[in-house]
Amino acid sequence: MCPLVPATRGERILFLDPMTDATAEGHARDVPARGSDYFALLKPRVMSLVVFTALTGLICSGAHVHPLLGAVAVLSIAVGAGASGALNMWYDADIDRLMRRTRARPVPAGRVQSADALGMGVVLSLLSVMLMGVALNWLAAGLLAFTILFYAVVYTAWLKRSTPQNIVIGGAAGALPPVIGWAAASGQAPLNAWLLFLIIFLWTPPHSWALALYTTTDYAKAGVPMMPVARGAASTRRQILLYSLLFVPAAVAPAFTGLGGPVYLAVSALGGAMFLLLAARLYLSRSGDISDAREDGLYGVKADARPARNLFAFSILYLCLLFAALLGERLSGIAPLKALIGLNG
Amino acid sequence: MSHPAHESEEARKARQRRNWLLAGALLAFVVLVFVVTLVRLKGNVLTHP
Questions:
Q1: Alpha carbon B16 to chain centroid, angstroms
Q2: Residue B1 touches partner A, C-beta closer than 8 Å
């Protein structure tokens, strides 16, 4: 029998067996779920980044949209993202139970039943897509439906457990919200919207693999073929550097396509240089060579894994800064660089 | 799901809270669709010749 693992929920502690469904649910079945447990199914931290990037796409489109309809668009995208999170937690409960980072989630901890998570995910998916279609337009609704299906079916149910390229291809789902926001406001999805998609798409591998380098044991235990598990740490560090070399130019590009202004250029160039420096340091380091480098939470790691932890933490900051710069420029009326230097378009 | 007849007092209260929350969410959705319809109708009427 495996040792029982304490899973905290507020002031209470439930003792769960992480290896078996029955025991875990059996221990916790009589403990009623709270509203916060259902809210946690929506992955609120992921949702906040989705809302932020979608809002940036919506504002950057430059299209006039009624404030209420704009708010409904962002709400639909947030609920759609939350729905796909719930579907992910429903499907992945078996492997979530095996990983330290995820075993306290509501379904593996037994606080919310699988069927409830599935029902919530399906209902919220349908409502969010319908609301987007009725309130804004069906291009945005179609993109939202595609995103939810792609994340829940293509990434979660297929790629995640079958290929080390899981987060590369699956990253498309996380990259679509700014395009959906743009389409919701304007009814179109032009190249600049897809440039925002490309930025997040190319950001995802270095970001996710940097984290995976110091959580290898968890992924290996759960049988998830993340890159460090399937190909080893050295190969992962090399691929992180390669993707970073693709990502940084893409991040600077909006300054030259009529999307970003001088502030964006400064933020993207300086932050990009820092990103490349951290990726190069990681490449030259031994991060991931030790099988379990985590000490406490997401950011507490042993010395060897610090380059990976540093890139992971900075990647979040850099992406936020990029989108904040775009959003700030649009809201404060700073013209795009292309207009300032008098180029057409 | 355990049968309501066998559930504890705490579980019964939690179920009731959940039901009220669901009812509130559904009502909010209906109101939102109604308001969105008004806004879209108004926009279409104003742009109609």
A1: 15
A2: yes
Examine the predicted complex and report whether its ipTM is higher than 0.90.
no
- Kindly determine whether residue B8 and residue A131, on different chains, have CB atoms separated by under 8 Å: no
Would you tell me which CATH number, out of the four given (1.10.10, 1.10.357, 3.30.1490, 1.25.40), belongs to the domain A1-163+176-185?
1.10.357
> A30 and B8: CB-CB below 8 Å?
yes
Of A131, A39, A144, the C-alpha closest to A85 is A39
Note down the domain range covering B17.
9-47
Chain B CB contacts of A35 under 8 Å are 17-18, 21
By Cβ distance, the residue of B11, B33, B35 closest to A32 is B11
Residues 17-46 of chain B whose Cβ lies under 8 A from any Cβ of chain A: 17-18, 21, 29, 32-33, 35-37, 39-40, 43
Q: Check if the beta carbon of residue A177 is closer than 8 Å to that of residue A140.
A: no
- CB–CB contacts below 8 A, A to B: 43
Contacts of B36 in chain A (CB under 8 A): 68-69, 72, 131, 134-135
The whole-angstrom separation of Cα A298 and Cα A319 is 18
In 3D space, the residue among A112, A130, A102, A91 whose CA is nearest the CA of residue A39 turns out to be A112
Distance of CA A222 to the CA centre of its chain: 20
Cα separation, A41 vs A130, whole angstroms: 21
Of A33, A38, A69, the CB nearest to B36: A69
- The CA distance from B20 to the nearest CA of chain A, in Å, is 11
Cα-based angle A292, A294, A296 (whole degrees, multiple of 5): 150
Per-residue pLDDT in tens (0 to 9) along chain A, 345 residues = 333 333 333 333 333 333 333 334 444 455 667 888 999 999 999 999 999 999 999 999 999 999 999 999 999 999 999 999 999 999 999 999 999 889 999 999 999 999 999 999 999 999 999 999 999 999 999 999 999 999 999 999 999 999 999 999 999 999 999 999 999 999 999 999 999 999 999 999 999 999 999 888 888 888 999 999 999 999 999 999 999 999 999 999 999 999 999 999 999 999 999 999 999 999 999 988 876 666 666 666 777 889 999 999 999 999 999 999 999 999 999 989 888 887 654
- Residue B4: inside a domain: no
